[in-house]
Amino acid sequence: MLDRLPVEIVERIVAKIPDTDLIAASKVDSVWWQEVRQEAYKRWKNYATTIGHVQALRKPFEKGNIDWISFEDVNDFYKRWIDRLTEDQLYIMEKMLRNGMVVDPQERETIEHALSEQRWGGDPWGLNWEWNEWTQQE
Questions:
Q1: Whole-number Cα distances in Å, 67 to 45, 58, 62
Q2: pLDDT tens digits, one per residue of 53-64
Q3: 23 neighbors 36 (Cβ within 8 angstroms)
Q4: Is 4 exposed, middle or buried (0-12, 13-18, 19+ CB in 10 A)?
Q5: Pairwise CA distance, residues 79 & 129, whole Å
């Protein structure tokens, strides 16, 4: 029955599916596969954009006009937020890769590198904001 729905309805349904179940919906048929692929790319982009916005939000706290206790709290908050967004983004990327939704070799290489960095406890996007970096600024 799901394979007979109009594309517009499939788009709406796919947009509401949580990240953890998104790729499973691609198994219905080729229309669903294409819609899930488009939605996954959209979510990947949204995570990347959000991470960029979070990075920009922390910029005022790099100026040094903040006391040390507040800085630690702010730093920890932003680090946890970015870590969570990165985990969610990498989850989508890995599922796309494993299900044949990534065809561009450069995207494939980016995903494989990011997943490798994450597995080894690294920072896949180079966003690590360390206490020492801040204290060594002029």
A1: 35, 15, 11
A2: 887 877 766 656
A3: yes
A4: exposed
A5: 7
Q: In this structure, is the dihedral angle defined by the CA atoms of residues 102, 107, 108 and 110, taken in order, positive or negative?
A: negative
The set of residues, in sequence order, having a beta carbon less than 8 Å from that of 117 and lying 6+ positions away, is 123, 124
pTM, rounded to two decimals: 0.74
Residue from 115, 92, 104 nearest 44 by CA? 92
CA separation for the pair 102, 112 (Å, rounded)? 11
Residues 6+ apart with CB under 8 A from 129: 58, 75, 78, 79, 82
What does DSSP assign to residue 100? T
